[in-house]
Amino acid sequence: MVFRLMSVIAGLALAFAAHAQRAPAEGTDYNELQPPQSVESPGKVEVIEFFWYRCPHCYSLEPELESWVKKLPSDVQFRRIPGILNDDWAIDARIFYTLEAIGEVERLHRALFDAIHQQGGVKLRGEGFAKWVATWLAKQKVDMAKYDAALHSFTVESKLRRATQMARSYRLDGVPTLVVQGKYSVIARSTMLDTTTFLIGEARKQLAKSKR
Q1: How far apart are CA 34 and CA 186, in angstroms?
Q2: Counting beta carbons within 10 angstroms of the beta carbon of residue 17, is it exposed (0 to 12), middle (13 to 18) or buried (19 or more)?
Q3: How is the beta sheet containing 184-186 ordered, strand by strand?
Q4: Helices 144-151 and 87-101: crossing angle, nearest 10°?
Q5: Nearest-CA neighbor of 60 among 174, 167, 175, 171?
Q6: Which tens digit of pLDDT belongs to each residue from 23-47?
Q7: What does the alpha-carbon distance between residue 59 and residue 131 come to, in Å, rounded to a whole number?
Q8: Which of 13, 39, 114, 146 is the most exposed place for a label (fewest CB within 10 A)?
């Protein structure tokens, strides 16, 4: 009886291990976009993260994603794109692109994420959220004259239009979403980075073939 029980346990363990080691599958772990979207740097493998500052899942992913991005090889280009699914999400996108325009996004992206989810910003909506962020940015010694000037600038407005267009083209229906080479959209939350790493390898093989 004990032997039979141990055999069952061993079988289950092997089955679990085999499942854990399987290659990511289309339809389960990722979807293939039709048609594929163009990439910014054709000679590299592009990875895009669509995110929303007030998204709890994006915030949970951020520490692991940040470490993962630092280890990416030189032939991989990583880009963050604010997901815009409605007018409220566009407020976060405007903040991101404004920080980018004044050269502050690298310094403050993670810190702003932390503040939003740890200091109450996540509960706010609309202009109330925008004002809360502006107050927080001023405390971080951001030049608010530059920030206010860039907030509705041509550069920021253009990037907002492009992000809105990309949300439609990539059929974005939620965040966080990772997309590899404009072709593969990762849908498995629990194995998101492992699946993305696998798809980077697939995209790299396809790039090598195209250069022959």
Answers
A1: 14
A2: exposed
A3: 30-32, 184-186, 177-180, 45-51, 76-82
A4: 130
A5: 175
A6: 899 999 999 999 999 999 888 999 9
A7: 21
A8: 13
Residues linked to residue 113 through DSSP beta bridges, in sequence order: none
80 CB-near residues (< 8 Å, 6+ apart): 48, 49, 51, 96, 109
Cα–Cα dist 186/189, whole Å:
8
Work out the angle between the directed axes of helices 87-101 and 105-118 (0-180°, nearest 10). Answer: 140
Q: DSSP assignment of the chain, as one string?
A: -HHHHHHHHHHHHHHHHHHHHSPP-BTTTEEE-SSPPP-S-TTSEEEEEEE-TT-HHHHHHHHHHHHHHHT--TTEEEEEEE--SSHHHHHHHHHHHHHHHTT-HHHHHHHHHHHHHHSSGGG--HHHHHHHHHHHHHHTT--HHHHHHHHT-HHHHHHHHHHHHHHHHTT--SSSEEEETTTEEE--STTHHHHHHHHHHHHHHHHHHHT-
State yes or no: cis peptide before 63, omega within 30 of 0: no
Torsion of CA 113, 117, 123, 124, to 10 degrees: -30
| Distance (Å, whole) CA 148 – CA 171 | 32
* Better-predicted residue by pLDDT, 74 or 16: 74
Q: Global pTM?
A: 0.88
What pLDDT is stored for residue 86 in this prediction?
A: 97
Contact 203, 45 (CB under 8 A): yes
